[in-house]
Amino acid sequence: MSFLNKEICDGDNPDLTEERRTATFDTDRMAQVIYGSEKFAARRRQITKSISRIPALQDTKPLAFMTREEKITEACRELDVLSDHWEQLIYVNDEEEALHLHREVIGMEGHPFALHETMFIPTLVSQASDEQQEKWLGRARKREIIGCYAQTELGHGSNLRKLETTATYSPSTQEFILHTPTITALKWWPGALGKSSNYAIVMADLVIKNKSYGPHPFIVQLRDEKTHQPLPGITVGDIGPKMAFNGADNGFLGFDHFRIPRGNLLMRHNRVEPDGSYLKPPHAKIGYSSMVKVRSRMAMDQGLFMAQALVIAVRYSAVRRQGFLEDKSQEVKVLDYQTQQHRLFPSIARVYAFIFCGLETIQLYEKLILDVNKNGDTSGMADLHSLTSGLKSVVTHFTGQGIEQARMACGGHGYSMASYISEIYGVAVAGCTYEGENMVMLLQCARALVKAVELVEEGHPEKLSPMMAYLTKPSVTVDLTVGPEAYVKIFQLIAKKQAFKATEQLHKFMVAGDSRDVAWNKSAVELTKASRLHTRLYILKTFIRRVESITDISVKAALTDLLNLHLNYELLDVASYALADGIMSSTQMDFIKNQLYSSLEKIRPNAVSLMDSFQFSDLQLRSVLGRRDGHVYQNLFEWAKSSPLNQSEVLPSVTQYLKPMMEKSKL
Ligand SMILES: CC/C=C\C/C=C\C/C=C\C/C=C\C/C=C\C/C=C/C(=O)SCCNC(=O)CCNC(=O)[C@H](O)C(C)(C)COP(=O)(O)OP(=O)(O)OC[C@H]1O[C@@H](n2cnc3c(N)ncnc32)[C@H](O)[C@@H]1OP(=O)(O)O
Ligand SMILES: Cc1cc2nc3c(=O)[nH]c(=O)nc-3n(C[C@H](O)[C@H](O)[C@H](O)COP(=O)(O)OP(=O)(O)OC[C@H]3O[C@@H](n4cnc5c(N)ncnc54)[C@H](O)[C@@H]3O)c2cc1C
Questions:
Q1: Which CA distances in Å does 604 have to 32, 333, 343?
Q2: pTM here?
Q3: Which annotated residues bind FAD (predicted)?
Q4: What pLDDT does 476 receive?
Q5: Which terminus of the chain, N or C, has less C-beta within 10 A?
Q6: Neighbours of 640 (CB within 10 A)
Q7: Under a CB-based contact definition with an 8 Å cutoff, are residues 397 and 529 in contact?
Q8: For residue 8, pLDDT beyond 70
Q9: Rounded to whole angstroms, how far apart are CA atoms 534 and 470?
């Protein structure tokens, strides 16, 4: 079956048009699967269309040619235009629509509202009492104030228990006194803190009568609402340029005995009474929920980052012709090379897999917040914490790898800022660090795994959560030809073996006399391996579940090819474990390799449409190389001509230095 996809093909590069004609599915239908519903996929298109009708939002000067200050100013200008059209463009308070709007118009380099939407408002929703929400949430949603999330300090990010900023309660004045006792206690890194925000959620150590209660969230006004000047007692500024994300003003913040009212401690789950008595929360880590919220989004957001890079690389590979295969009269599209397919298609599969996981974890977080806020039920917190800790680490790592391969797949032009892939890479890999450094978070996931293994060893398998149930599965011989379930079984055995081995190693060191912490550190590499396998198993199972649920036959067939590629690629990638433990034979390995190569061939005709289905506009992609029309060479030439360096034939640097130097050399 062959579809001419709905998008207009006329005028596009004929090589791309040909790719779109041969696709076996409808990209609008695929978009429904990617974005979780027909309704949201349609809303995205509608929003994109509405944006295209607002002249002030069309791309002006390319971001690559802008200074940092110009990028920040441009983002603010766009936010101002958006603000004037907000209610016509999206449903007010719809988080997904707001995120789409920002991604499309402002892009990924950061902007003053990035943390306002993703952490400031969510913290108020999850941590502020009803009364506090009444006071601040409405104002935040109406954008009367701009907020950020200030937790990390110069000296501590990972180890939250050692944050040094203090919030000391003064019963006589019913105030908290915020203070930065040392240079390492300066808040450092929070996005949009430096210059844009006038409010912040500040995580500080709550101290009452000389007793420390650990990090708690406070809402703090940083700047005067009229003048935007920092309030007395507050030192705040920008931390300087970064590897990417330079449209954002990540900042520093210090307090000099800065007083805030008692009512500024967010008190949905814990309280400090006027006399200083403390009511503890129903779960010790409930104050960490905003981090879990962002981690639960990361599989989706990182999937979309990698998708952007792959749209660019796949479209370009279908237009770029170099070298010959059978027909010596015409050079081939580089997408026809097996190595190019092997470089790109497994990442396409991962993009889909990550996004399916993201759809699931976003919902899990929303359910958790309902359970906690409405029923005081915190029982889901531990599982979601371990799941999202593993997932953010695995997904960000593979996203970085996938984007870098996408860059290389574009040859020399991939290295140019015209491709925009380097910016996507820089922004995406920040995710390996923010919301918990990947190794640290893999070790959090490992805590849950070790506990589960210990339960099995102690004879209590019935206490395992469903995600851990595979740890009780016996070893079996598996026939891989029966389909995805066989791959799951092998993966389960590999993951189970590693979880038991790592736990055994931990116990061995403890029996030999090491403390649990020291034994843990001596086993940490093995523990992180167990966490990765555990998480990759979850990703694989989610992918299978999602594909099984699809009703559109042609979409399901295309995704089944992608799923088969994923299964074979993943198993091959962890084959060293399986071979070492005798779980798989070398004959099975050969079978997997052959399946992998044949999956590449099956996916080839659909590659461009699998990526077109994300329906990123050219405005959002910001890539000269990856534009929908595929007129790569003309677009590149126009872009290069617009470089500021090309606005004059002879640069001042030549007149001032090179010319005199050459003249001197002649003497
Ligand atoms: C954001 C992206 C959104 C959209 C992108 C779209 C477009 C892009 C455009 C713009 C970009 C937008 C935003 C910019 C991006 C970045 C924002 C970044 C923000 C930040 O980075 S905020 C700071 C984040 N910081 C961290 O993550 C710190 C990591 N450290 C920790 O979380 C804790 O210190 C750690 C490691 C969990 C340890 O905590 P602690 O020492 O207190 O505990 P223990 O290790 O002793 O464990 C005890 C016990 O508690 C359990 N536990 C820990 N945490 C939790 C939890 N959250 N929930 C439930 N349970 C928890 C732990 O498992 C232990 O249990 P056990 O005893 O084993 O049973
Ligand atoms: C782009 C960006 C945006 C950010 N936005 C915000 C924000 O909005 N708000 C905010 O509060 N913060 C923000 N941060 C800060 C971020 O959350 C922290 O940088 C992150 O949590 C890592 O902490 P760290 O810098 O202390 O790393 P460190 O912990 O110092 O990591 C250094 C090394 O030590 C290792 N390590 C540390 N502890 C352990 C351990 N227990 N076991 C094994 N290895 C360990 C790590 O694995 C790593 O290899 C942002 C950071 C970036 C890059």
A1: 22, 11, 12
A2: 0.97
A3: 152, 191
A4: 85
A5: C
A6: 13
A7: no
A8: no
A9: 10
